[in-house]
Amino acid sequence: MTIPGLMQPTPLTLDHVFERMRTVYADGQVISPERRTTYGELSERILRLARALVDDLGVRPGDRVATFATNTARHFELYWAVPLVGAVLHTVNIRLHPEQIAYICNHAEDRVLFFDGALAAQVGELAPELATVKDYVALGAAADGAPGGTRDHDALVGGAEPLRDLPAVDEQAALGLCYTSGTTGMPKGVLYSHRGMWLHSLAASMADHIGLSEADRVLPIVPMFHAFAWSLPYAAPMTGAELVFHGADNSPEHLAGLIEREQVTLSAAVPTIWKTLLPLYREGRADPASLRLVFVGGAASPRALIEAYDELGVTYLQVWGMTETGPLASAARPRRRHRGLDHDALLDVREKTGTIFAGLEARIVGDDDEPLPWDGQAVGELEVRGPWIASAYYRQEDDRARFHDGWLRTGDMAYMEPDGYFRIVDRAKDLVKSGGEWISSVELEGHVLAHPAVADAAVIGVPSRKWDERPVVVVVGEDGQTAPGLDALREFLAGRVPKWWLPDDVVVVDEIPKTSVGKLNKRALREELGDLRLP
Ligand code: ADP
């Protein structure tokens, strides 16, 4: 019931943002491998696609429409057209194992699947396993092996009249579906709502969060098949910021070239990507001058990496979130009380995880779920709640392990300073528990990575009879250099970390396994290393 005289109850649905993109920001450029275009032109294509979804493909409100695609303008069209007709965009991670992909699509009961034409053979092999998919549509020319009857996206768009009278959609309707990448167990679905995504995009745009503006040109390197590319396909058009898509080519040369050529001002990716771009910048093979900000999440960023970008004149902002948190939830912007700190002390601040976004709440709890004090010391599991936080997993409402009393358990361990600035010390499952004390594998990795002969590092807890667990460092040597042995590494780390953090062993490997989105895959690493034991 509306109280007479009260402000308008406008629903927070995507159509409002769409209208702004279509009219106010029509001249905004969108650059993609398949075309250079504008928000205005794309808006017309989106309305045509909306019509094709309904009339040609029979998509109804609530239906799941899957994408199996990289970052392109065509994929962007689906980000808009599908929710605008009340359907649910399910972005499938193209790097998962085929069984996981089949599981996800069957669990979601996807009705249509749009895929990058170049991925035709992969989709052709998957198709017999996908029980509910009725139509396949190729984005761009389909390579050999596409499922029979595959349709062409551009032909669908070209053949449909724009759907000008978009249906009314409830702000609490589902807009998107994202499965967590599943480092443990089978992937779980997180259902994003119009309202949640709307508020998330607005929050991300705040100056002390990410801070987006019409003057920006944004390159989301984070894949559109992972956590909705951190909402940038919506937040950018909401603010008028322009978009650049890099397609399927993730090579450092391509990304750095694109940033330079297209004068990208703001870009988002996991730490590994920024690490691989660094040599190009340091050796002067690419110029990062146009970049004003990179924001980096998905895993903790090593201090040395933040500092390296400082030296290049690029602001490196750490953000934190997870698929379940919509996905962005905090940013490590220095606060008022940090003013006047010297470079090193400021790095200490930026290395932490930051302040929870306005609109959300955070707390830390102990084993008994009781809140712990914000004293900068007590470490507990971080919990969050708010309008863009998952309340349950999709079609697994009985799985309550992660949700209780309106809070999401993040699985991350953190401490809180009195003003709510927090630091994630580790994932609960990766903390090394040594003699009743905790060692942060993430922090130790950061120090090991600062060694000049170390290209990559992971710390894992290995069973020890005396201490329960002790840290073992797995390293990859820098090209042309010998990776440091145990004594050299302990000597390097002494003085940087508490004495009892010094590792008990070092294992040198050629490569550390990564997850589908480029994070350390400690589960796979443990499997590869087999039964490591310490005395
Ligand atoms: P998953 O990798 O489990 O599929 P996500 O991609 O959603 O899921 O990853 C979320 C997790 O990534 C967080 O719970 C946290 O452990 C880690 N993470 C993300 N950003 C940061 C950060 N800035 N610092 C430390 N850890 C981070």
Major beta-sheet overview: 9 strands, mixed
> What form results from the Cα inertia axes?
globular
Order of strands across the widest beta sheet?
Answer: 2-1-11-10-12-13-14-15-16
Quaternary organization: single chain
Distinct small-molecule ligands in the complex: adenosine-5'-diphosphate
> What is the average of the pLDDT values?
95
What is the CA-atom radius of gyration, in angstroms?
A: 23 Å
> If helices are DSSP runs of H or I spanning 4 or more residues, what is the number of helices?
15
* Model regions low in confidence, pLDDT < 50 over at least 5 residues: none
Distance between the termini: 69 Å
Structural class category:
alpha/beta
Strand runs, count: 26
Question: Could you estimate the helical fraction of the residues in percent?
Answer: 25-40%
Strand content: 15-25%
Question: Summary?
Answer:
With 535 residues, this protein is of the alpha/beta class. The protein has 15 helices and 26 strands.
Give the helix/strand layout.
Elements: H1 14-23, E1 29-32, E2 35-38, H2 39-55, E3 64-68, H3 73-84, E4 88-91, H4 98-108, E5 110-116, H5 120-126, E6 135-139, E7 151-152, H6 153-159, E8 174-179, E9 189-193, H7 194-205, E10 217-220, H8 232-239, E11 242-244, H9 252-261, E12 266-269, H10 271-282, E13 293-296, H11 303-311, E14 315-321, E15 328-331, H12 343-351, E16 355-356, E17 361-365, E18 380-385, E19 403-404, E20 407-416, E21 422-427, E22 432-434, E23 437-439, H13 441-449, E24 454-464, E25 468-477, H14 486-493, E26 505-508, H15 522-529
Parallel strand pairs: 1-11, 3-4, 3-5, 4-8, 5-6, 6-7, 10-11, 10-12, 12-13, 13-14, 25-26
Antiparallel strand pairs: 1-2, 8-9, 14-15, 15-16, 17-18, 18-20, 19-20, 20-21, 22-23, 24-25
Helix pairs in contact: 1-2, 2-3, 2-6, 7-8, 9-10
Bound molecules: adenosine-5'-diphosphate.
The site of adenosine-5'-diphosphate has 20 residues, from strand 14, strand 20 and strand 21.
